Amino acid sequence: MDYKKIDNKDIEYILSIIQDKQRVFHGENINEDYSHDELSATKKMPEVVIQVLTTEEISKIMKYAHENKIPVTPRGAGTGLVGSAVPIYGGILLDTTKMNKILEVDTENLTLTVEPGVLLLDIGKYVEKLNLFYPPDPGEKTATIGGNISTNAGGMRAVKYGVTRDYVRGLEVVLPTGEIIELGGKIVKNSSGYALKDLMVGSEGTLGIVTKAILKLLPLPKKVMSLLIPFPNLDMAISTVPEIIKSKSIPTAIEFMQREVIVAAEKFLGKKFPDNSSDAYLLLKFDGNTIEEIEKDYEDVAKLCLEKGAFDVYISNIKQREEAIWSARGVFLEAIKADTSEMDEVDVVVPRNKVADFIKYVHELEEKHSIRLRSFGHAGDGNLHVYILKDELTEDVWQRKLEEVMEDMYKKQRELRGQVSGEHGIGLAKKPYLNQSLSPTTLNLMRGIKSTFDPNNILNPGKIF
Amino acid sequence: MDYKKIDNKDIEYILSIIQDKQRVFHGENINEDYSHDELSATKKMPEVVIQVLTTEEISKIMKYAHENKIPVTPRGAGTGLVGSAVPIYGGILLDTTKMNKILEVDTENLTLTVEPGVLLLDIGKYVEKLNLFYPPDPGEKTATIGGNISTNAGGMRAVKYGVTRDYVRGLEVVLPTGEIIELGGKIVKNSSGYALKDLMVGSEGTLGIVTKAILKLLPLPKKVMSLLIPFPNLDMAISTVPEIIKSKSIPTAIEFMQREVIVAAEKFLGKKFPDNSSDAYLLLKFDGNTIEEIEKDYEDVAKLCLEKGAFDVYISNIKQREEAIWSARGVFLEAIKADTSEMDEVDVVVPRNKVADFIKYVHELEEKHSIRLRSFGHAGDGNLHVYILKDELTEDVWQRKLEEVMEDMYKKQRELRGQVSGEHGIGLAKKPYLNQSLSPTTLNLMRGIKSTFDPNNILNPGKIF
User: Fold this and answer.
1) Residues of B in contact with A110 (CB under 8 A)
2) Structural domain range at position A302
3) How confident is the model at residue B206 (pLDDT cuts 50, 70, 90)?
4) The domain spanning residue B310 has which CATH number?
5) Tell me: the pLDDT tens digits for A182-236?
6) What PROSITE patterns does this protein map onto (chains A, B) (predicted)?
7) CA–CA separation, A141 vs A121, rounded Å?
C-alpha cells in the first residue's frame, strides 16, 4: 500500500497538537517494545509514537493522518497475542495507556465510565470496593479496557456472565476521519438503527479508536467457591461438561486442565498445586450471595461429576486454597512460555459438545508431527487454547511443523463448525485461517464496512482480512 | 427512487421459481392485510406477494430483484408497530410465515434451530416441554421469531435475561444480492472478524433476510412468583427501581403500571385485577429453582419497597392470581387501543434513573396539549411505552397535536440521553426522530453499511434512515 512516510513537517504538526514533547517519540527515541506484542512473531517499528491524553488530540491526529494518508495503529498495554497492535506499515503509533482515568461510577444505573487506558485489574479493584462487579475476566489482568474492547475479550467467567461486548453499554469513538461519535449510552436496551456499538466491539482497532467506554456493572456476589475435580482422563472430564450446563446450577467458570500444564505452573510459581496426581481436571467456580446458595449448586454438580467417573471432588472453601488454584490457572500461559524456547498459539472456539473431539485430535497431532502441544481452556464455552512449542527444533523444522500443525488444527475447527478465534482476535497471525473459515461473500461485507468507516484505509491497516 | 414496476414477465419468472401458484398473489388477489402492520398509519399494497418456503426460493427471488431493481419487503406476522414491513415502494412482499418449522433442538449445546416464521408462542411451548427456556418475552406472542430478530425485540424479562440479540447464536441470511451466508453458529464465543451476526439482529430486514436462526436456550427455572406492589404515586414507585436493581436480588421483570391502564385492561378482559385502588404499581417477577430461593429474593425486595413507602405487597403464589396479573399486563396495548378511536405510540428508552423524570413529563404534556396519554412499561430497563390517544379529536387537530406531543417527548428523550426506540425499532414511523437523535456522521455510517450489503437499495428501502 502507498502510505506517506513521516517527515519533519509531520513531526512539527504533531508537536503543534500535542505540545508536550515528552509524549512524542520518533526515530531512535522509540522504545523497541512498541514494535511487537506479547506473542506474535511479526515485529515492526513505528515512525512516531504519541502518548495521547485526550479525545481531541486523537481526533486532530486522525484528521491529519486521514488527509495525508499516514497509517495509524492504536495500542493499549501491548498484551495482545495476534499482532493487532503491531504497526506493520510504520506510521504513527497511538499509545493510549496514559488515558487511564476512571471518569464516573453511576450507582443508580450501575455503570462505570472509563478512559481506554485503564487496566482491567484497576477496574476490578475500584468497583469491588463499592460492592460492585465487572464480570469479564480474561487471564491477562494488565491489559487495558480499550484492548479488551478491541478483541471482545472473553475470559473465565463467560460461561455464566458472557463476554466484553455484553458489558459495553456505550462508547465514544474517534473515527479514522477524525470525527467523534457516541454509540449507545447508559441505556439498557436499544433498537434505534444498526448496532454500531456491537460492531465496534471486537473490531481490533480497525474501525475507530475507543476514547471512552460506559461499562455495565452488577452487584458483587458475596461468596465465591471452587471445585477442583480430578478425572481418570480428559475425555471423561470434558464429556461431563454438557451435563453440567444442562443442570440448573450454572457455574461461573468451567475450565479444563491436564497434569503437564499443572506441573509447568508449579515449576513457574515455585508452589505446589493442591493435587497433580491425575491426568485431567475440571476446575469449576461458583458464585452467589450466601454459602448455602452456592452449596446447593455445587453439591448437585459434584454428585454429577462423581457419577460420571471423577476420582474425587476437592472443595476450595478456604481463601488460601482458592488462591493457590486460581493463581496457578492464571499463569498457565506464562508457565508454558517459560518451559520452551518459542511458541505459537491457537484460540479456536467449537460447539461445547465438540471440545472433547478437538482435544483428542490435538493429542493425535502431537504424535503425528512429533511436536509438543499444550492445551487448556474454557471447557464451559468451547474456547480452547492450544500452544505449539518449538523446544529444540531448528528454525526451519519449526516453521514447517508449525504451519502443518496449524493447517491441521484449523481444518478440524472448520469440520466441527467452530470459529478461528474465541477471544484473542485475528490480527495478523490468524488472517490466513479466517480467510479459509469465512466465505468470500462474508469477508467482502467486512471489507465494505471497513471502507465505509475508513475510506483511506489508514487505521490499523492490514489486520483481520 | 427509480424502481422497476412488476410486469407479466416478472410474474412468469416468479412462478417459474415458486411453481406452486397457491403461494403467489398479485393484483386484486392480494389480501389488504399485507398493506399495513399492527399500528403504523402508512398503508401501501405490494404488487406481488410470495409465501416463500425455502432459502433457495428467497435467494433466487432476491437475485432477480437485485438484477432488475425491484423493491422487496420481508414480512413475518405483521405485528410490528412502526411500519417496517409496509412495502412503501410496492414491489415484492416476501411472506415468511410458512417457513415455520422447528428444525432441531440440541440438548448438549442448548440451542434451538428454527425457520424465521415460527411464532414466539410456539417456541415457548416447544422448549418448555423439554424443560428448557427461551427468555426473550415481548408482549406480542404471535410475532414470528424472524420479526423479533429484525427489531431486536426486548420484552419483560430483559431486566434479568437481556434481549433477542443475546439469544441469537447463529443466522443463515439471504443477502439483497441473493447470496446466502452463515453468521455465528452453535459456538458460545466469537472474536473472528466483525460482529455481522449482531449487526444483522435489529436491522429491520434492511440488510438481509433471516432464513434460519440458531437460538440459545437456558434450563427452565422451575418456579416463578410475582409481587404486585401498590404505591401512593408513580414517582414513589419508580424511584424505588434503582434501589431494587442495586440489591442483590435481580428480578426477572420490573414493570410499572397506573390505575387508568389497569381499569382499561379490566374492561377489555371483563375480569377484575387483584387490586386497582392505588394510583401506581410496580409488578415484579422472580424466577428460580426452588420456592425457598425465590422467597429469599423477594422478601428483601418487599421489605425495601415497604421502606420506600409502598402501601402493601401482594404475593401471587397461586397460579390463578399469577395468571390474572400477567394476562392483564399482556393486554395493555390492546386494551388502550380498544378504548380510543385511533392512537400512536412512543417506545423510548432512557437511563433507568430517568424513568420517573420522563413519566412526570408525560403527565405535564397531557395537560399542556389537552390530550389523553397512557403509559406503561419496563421500569427495570428504562424502556417506556407511551400511547397518544385520538379519542374524539378531529383529524386536523389530532395530526397537529400528535406532532407537537411527539416533538416534545423526543426532545425530552434526547435531553435525558435516551434513545428513540428500546425494542420496537424505527421503521417508517420514527425515522424523523432517529434523524434528530443520532449525529449525521453516525447516520452516514449506517447508510454506508446499507449500501455495502445492498448496493441497489432494493431490500426494504426507505426504512430506518
Assistant:
1) 245-246
2) 223-333
3) very high
4) 3.30.70.2190
5) 999 999 999 999 999 999 999 999 999 999 999 999 999 989 999 999 999 999 9
6) FAD_PCMH (PS51387)
7) 5
Rounded alpha-carbon distances, angstroms, from residue A147 to A37, A171, A209: 12, 14, 10
**A132 is a domain residue:** yes
CB contact under 8 A, A418 and B187: yes
- What are the tens digits of pLDDT across the range A72-98? 999 999 999 999 999 999 999 999 999
Of A242, A424, A465, the CB nearest to B193: A465
Query: How close B273 gets to chain A, by Cα (Å)?
Result: 29
Q: Which residues contact A78 (CB under 8 A, 6 or more apart)?
A: A33, A34, A36, A37, A38, A85
> CATH number of the domain that B150 lies in?
3.30.465.10
Of B245, B349, B426, the CB nearest to A187: B349
Least Cα separation, residue B136 to chain A (angstroms): 13
Q: Count of CB contacts below 8 A, A vs B?
A: 242
Q: By three-state DSSP, how is residue A15 classified?
A: helix
**Cβ–Cβ gap B219/A441 under 8 Å:** no
CATH number of B348's domain: 3.30.70.2740
Amino acid sitting at position B280: A
Contacting residues of A for B441, CB less than 8 Å apart: 175, 179, 181
Q: Determine contact, residues A93/A51, Cβ cutoff 8 Å.
A: no
Band the pLDDT of A293: cuts 50, 70, 90: confident
The alpha carbon of residue B271 is apart from the nearest alpha carbon of chain A, in Å, by 33
Which position has the grid cell 428483601?
B300
pLDDT at A373: 96
Could you say which residues from 148 to 187 on chain A have a Cβ atom under 8 Å away from some Cβ of chain B? 151-154, 158, 162-163, 165-166, 175, 179, 181-183, 185-187
Q: Using alpha carbons, select from B168, B242, B248 the residue that is nearest to residue B201.
A: B168
Q: A145: burial class by Cβ within 10 Å (0-12, 13-18, 19+)?
A: buried
Is 80 exceeded by the pLDDT of residue B317? no
What's the domain count of chain B? 4
Which triple of cell numbers denotes residue B165?
440479540
CB contacts, 8 Å: B178 with chain A: none
Specify whether the CB–CB gap between A200 and A252 falls below 8 A. Answer: no
* Same domain, yes or no: A374 and A327: no
- The predicted-structure confidence for B44-63, as pLDDT tens digits, reads as follows 999 999 999 999 999 999 99
Whether A193 sits inside 8 A of B424 (CB atoms) is no
Buried b vs exposed e over A3-17: b needs ≥16 C-beta within 10 Å?
beebeeebeeebeeb
How far, in Å, CA of B265 to CA of B280, rounded? 15
Residues B325 and B241 in one domain: yes
Inter-chain CB proximity B201 and A195 less than 8 Å = yes
What local confidence, expressed as pLDDT, does residue B6 receive? 97
B110 vs A: CB within 8 A: yes
- In a domain, residue A108? The reply is yes
Search chain A and give the residue with CA nearest B289. Answer: A248
Locate A12 and state its grid cell.
Answer: 512539527
What letter would DSSP give residue A119?
A: B
Q: How far apart are alpha carbons A90 and A165 in whole angstroms?
A: 30
Report yes or no: A381 at the B interface, CB cutoff 8 Å: yes
B463 assigned to some structural domain: no
pLDDT, position A324: 85
Residue B465 lies in a domain: no
